[in-house]
Records
---
Amino acid sequence: MAENIATEQGQGPDKNGDEKRIIIRTVGLKKTYMMKDVLTQALRGVDVAIDQGEFISVMGPSGSGKSTFFNMIGALDSPTVGRVFIDEVDVAQLTAEELAYLRCHKIGYIFQSYNLIKYMTALENVTTPMAFGGVLPDEARERGMEILDLVGLKDRWHHRPIEMSGGQQQRVAIARSLANNPSVLLCDEPTANLDVNTGQEIIDILVRLNTEKGVTIICATHDHRMMNICDRLMWIRDGQIDRIANREDVHIELASIDGE
Amino acid sequence: MKVINIDNQPWLSLPRTLKITTDGIRYRLFRASVTVAVITVAVAFLMNILAESLIKRAVASDTRERIQKAQLNSIWASKLTSPGSPESIIVETATTEKGSDLYKETQIFAKFDDKAMEEFQALAKDINYIFNFFENLDYAKRRDLIHTSEGVDILRYLSDPENYKTFYIGLSRYKSIHFGMEKEEFDALLAKLPELDATINTILEARREANAKINAILRRDYPNANNDAERLAMALPDADKEFGDSIRSVGFVFDKETVAPELARQAQRLQYTTRMKNSIKDRPVRQLIAQEANILPADVNDVLMWNFLNDKDFAEKYLVKMADSGQDIEGLSADLLVDLAKGRKEAEALERAERLTMDAGRGFMGLGERLAWLLFVSLLVCGIGITNAMMMSVTERFTEIATLKCLGALDGFIMIMFVLESCFMGVVGGTIGAIIGALIGLGRMLSAFGVNFISAIPFLDILGGMLVSVILGTLLAAIAAVLPSWKAARLAPMEAMRVE
Ligand SMILES: Nc1ncnc2c1ncn2[C@@H]1O[C@H](COP(=O)(O)OP(=O)(O)OP(=O)(O)O)[C@@H](O)[C@H]1O
Ligand SMILES: [Mg+2]
């Protein structure tokens, strides 16, 4: 039954021409927050399948449950009900060591609130996940500088988060998410605090990662440029999937609306 | 083929762990130093109480020893003139060591062989235990159990079957009292009462006889003195010579090598002291002190005199004045006067120390009840202070824990990080605190007891106390940091981020 849902919805194009492979799949995902006797249903049953190498944009009004959804599929939080499969492995079955490995090597996170470590420089923030992954310090430093160069922060490598602007911090967060060449990149509004040009640069980086390295990118955004380059769009409303559509279909719709 | 193959996360190398930990501490230096300061104060408080307790305990036993030594004169003066009481004989016998002079002396007076003497000492110990037991009871209970009897009469009182019954009924009523002697044992003890009376009478009789002989010798040798006390005071300085032989000849055990010279010295000094005290009776002598102190001659007293005699120049002038007014200054010198004045100061310090350490010897570790209670409270304050400070500093870092976990940190890494950090803080704060606490304790105790107790200060014990305090502070800090961080590390990262 769950398999069916997954295949029905997995309509994204396959860039490599290989058989499609589902990399993230959720089954009946629900999350309820309990705060001082007040229950908030952040997710009310989400079933979705995301293909490997896909670039999918997630949209929805504020408070609709996007970040909550990201935490679930990124193995950062446990769902109240339902399951998350990452490459067909049930996350709930993993041991603590395996979970750490998964978070460290396979999934890159860009948090909405960056979550940089305050006492580390930009470079250290980027190299810390590498250190956890067992990369030697020299190599880590070299690679860290490369990635910082990629996001345009090469000459700010020794700055601490509080010494940087919001946009710069966001770019450090992006650099950190790329540290261990993840297979899946979860981006929670990665361009929210960036100006048009830097935002475009980041989008270009994401697109390049997606096309050249086949990284699966799941991106919460309100940015229209993102909609133009993604494979699929997904709308979340009130903790449920409102709609999933291919980009082409959406463009036709938009065009028709514009035409009216 | 799997795109995402899942493996086990490796451990982070120790240097890297250390680097991250020290970076964290350095970044939060202010916050960390506040936490360290709290640990410092808590440990200093504990250490201060501990150091003062240890010093007090040591000074107490030192004081007791010194007083006992300084009292040779009065001990022998009373021994040579009075046979003592049954109680004093029992307590003496119970508390002296087997083979000591006193032990041998009692054996001679009681005309006991070795075995009988051993039995007598065992009996004395049991009776002394009973004395102490009733001594420590409050008045109401004591009255209930043994009415108003005291000393050996307690045993006589309890030998009466009626009283005996009331006593055991009373004991069973007061649950808090622990008598500590089995009923059979106690019965056997009561049965020995006639035997005890006989022994004590023998000893008292022998001592009375010895006292009479000494008195006769004194009357013979010092016919010019006014009374017995004066004769004894004149004879005792000769205790290391002929008079010592006389003491031995009448049956006392009086060691020629150790006790005799010391007793002679003390007696001699006492004689000089008395002579000096009387010296201010002469007006010219009094005037000298009055001039120096700028007061009226009539207001001069011996306390003032001793104060001034501390100075050698004054002592010389004083001796001249004494000679001028016709006083006997034979054997006196300026140095001796200064020494006597110093001796008086020391005696005063001893008295003060004895008063200040009254309660030592009882309670936990012989620290005295009040100090043991203080130590307990300071332990509590120390524990709560450190726990609170550490917990606060960990709780405000749950976000950091969560973020590190998102990046692939193992729970173990987070634990190591917090163990390292809290141990570091504990050791730094604990060491500074222990040093400060010990120094304050040392200073306070020195100012209370005076520098001539410096030799009594148990530096090794204090060092041990410092070690214990540092370890305790570190342990508390580590536990208080590790428990909450373990709680946070076990949670899913985003759950930890939500914890407030
Ligand atoms: N820690 C929490 N405790 C209680 N309720 C929470 C918590 N986090 C989120 N929520 C609730 O869950 C719902 C979804 O929140 P979520 O952060 O997923 O929204 P979002 O789509 O990411 O919004 P935004 O676009 O503003 O980032 C919201 O109604 C929010 O109030
Ligand atoms: Mg959000």
---
Amino acid sequence: MNFKLSEEQAMLKESIARFVQDRYDFTARCAAATSEIGFSRENWATFAELGWLSIPFEEEHGGFGGSAVDTMVVMEELGSGLVVEPFVATVLLFGGLLGKGGSAEQKAANISAIIAGELQGAFAFLERQSRYELADIKTVAAGNGSGFTINGEKTVVFNGAAADKLIVSARTSGAQCEQQGISLFLLDASAAGIEKTAYRLMDGQLVANITFNDVAVSADQLVGELDDGYRLITDVINEVIVAISAEAVGIMQKLNDTTVEYTKTREQFAVPIGSFQALQHRMVDMFMGCEQTRSLLYRAVCSMDDQSADAREIEKNILALKVMVGRIGKLIGGESIQLHGAMGVTDELDVGHYFKRLMMINTSFGDADYQQQKFSALTNSG
Amino acid sequence: MDTNFSAEDLAFRDEVVAFLETAWTDEHEAHLRDPQAGMQAIIDWQKRLHARGWLAPGWPVEYGGTDWTTTQSFIFETERATAGAPDVPPFALKMVAPVIYTYGSDEQKQRFLPRILSSEDWWCQGYSEPGAGSDLASLKTKAELDGDEYVVNGAKIWTTYAQYADWIFCLVRTDSSGRKQAGITFLLIDMKSPGITVNPIETIDGVYSLNEVLFDNVRVPVENRIGEQDQGWTYAKALLAHERTAIAGVADSRRHLGEIRELARQEVSGGRALLEDPAFQARLSSVEIELMALEYTELRVLAAMAEGSGPGVESSLLKIKGTEVQQSVQQLRIDVAGYYCGVIAGESGDIGHSFGSEARRAYMYGRASTIYGGSNEVQKNITAKFVLGL
Ligand SMILES: Cc1cc2nc3c(=O)[nH]c(=O)nc-3n(C[C@H](O)[C@H](O)[C@H](O)COP(=O)(O)OP(=O)(O)OC[C@H]3O[C@@H](n4cnc5c(N)ncnc54)[C@H](O)[C@@H]3O)c2cc1C
């Protein structure tokens, strides 16, 4: 038993940390986020060059064949640097669905392009009314003999504005909230009948609402089995939840370090404010929260990488992790601002920006309350 | 013990409700929300209140206040919040005016108070400095007497609404030889004076309210000094407690909680209303229980004030709990909004829940309520020392 990174993982971690250190200071990050596409293409090309985009993909598709721990290492560092480039949307969501459910042709046509940094993707799964229910889908893909016609609207599509290709969830049968009857389709973002409205979220990412008006797709654009898309969606989203949880831990660590450092230098009443026990205890709480979250993160990735682990155990670990990420994220984000005093509410300081990303992570794929109920249902049922 | 309203109180409440029906309408609300309108909606609101004689309830009648009892003030506040009308900015009406009518000269009272009531003059508060936040008394902005003028040099920071202000009331250092609380002077400074620079500070809520105000050889006539030189700390301190009771915002939290209950009734989660979700119910109830306690804590503080004591150290309790409840309420609202709490309004048209952006703005600005007006940590220090005797 050990919790050490392998030599390769340590090098990966260091290479990302070095990139952030040398080329991704807060000013560069804000410039990337506020650019027209919401990130920097130049940085993306660097990610491809350094091999980061290949990490989760299978070796047979040109990937690195990485484990859950490898993805965790990447995401924690991206979190620490508050990196806004769409690694989650393109590589983990879009790429993850293709890697797990795509046909041989779909994989061949897309995965190497993702790894080369030449293809941006997005997964359009949310709808106006769906809140956190992945099965609450009104968008319809109606069979028309040779293929399908898609009609509906998706909201808050991560990387939806810049994506060249989309995977969309739509109903091919079943009622609005049923898990059965959901299918996924891969299509060009520029296909006839697609309209995008781009907008920014508080964490800087550029997202889009996307409407589908009689968009025609053929049967070979189906990703995975007809009517059986829900399982694929939840499989991939579970992995993404762990990935953004790792990102959150990177952020928590960064906020804790920044706050401790600030309280050592900021003086009031002729002493550093870090000398006040009232504040010390709160920073100890922040520290403990971060460590506890990190423990649940390790617990989740270890179970995911363990071939013999029970599926229910894995799910429980992931749910527990996401609950704690939400709760501790709020604690650490809020306390970081409070302990910085008025400086903490300025836009110029990065603290507020890290906090906003933590808030979006809490919301993404279901907030702490939502995941806790799923956890309760899972653990308290027979 | 009796908390029933008298017949006169009930009649007064009817009067207030009737006034608000026309003085705060949906149209006024829309104007307030219009980002282009800036301060105008608030100025118009102040003018309607002034026309009714209700702009400055806490002031003595001779200067334009009302002679409301504490209960009447409470009723007014409750009804104002229920109607959704905003509290007026405190800087002129609740901060500098009491200093002027309590410690100012007759000439100062005549010069400044009517212009505050008529909304002609806008004020901002120049206390905090980059090096003097919680430790306000360590402030360094210097004023030196030169003939019959002070020459002011230094920097104030976090000055809310300095960009709109005609006047700034400042604490400045006139003597640094003794205790830091001694040697502070209270000055009223015309914002149009040569040598003043106002630099905006961007904040996480995305709405421009904060500034840095720089003073470079700004000349201030001695007649703009409140009371005695070097006695400014005493004047300022006497009024800090009032600021704290105002920050608690109890009646507004009650209204917001009601709004959230409605939003959660409409929000659907997995085919049923979020309001039916037991976890959400539990959180909503917890906040409501805190708020119910707070409503009575406020009444107790008000009752003590009516008997001539306070608001003293209990105002710290009200400030701490009031701002904690506000933050819990703000948290609930963004949680109801789900993903849409992230949407930045004005980016484009109809995106998701229309309330998401406003919920986030309130939540982000709300982080500051535990920092300003004496941070909650400092309030706890005060309570430990002066209430618990530690
Ligand atoms: C939105 C906003 C509006 C404001 N508007 C105005 C305005 O109009 N005019 C004006 O003059 N000022 C204004 N302020 C400034 C406000 O009064 C100060 O922010 C406040 O006094 C705290 O000072 P600081 O920000 O320097 O924090 P600091 O004093 O540096 O405090 C940093 C942290 O240390 C804690 N701390 C400090 N001392 C102690 C202690 N002894 N024990 C335990 N903890 C301690 C604080 O609670 C805080 O968490 C505003 C601030 C904000 C955020």
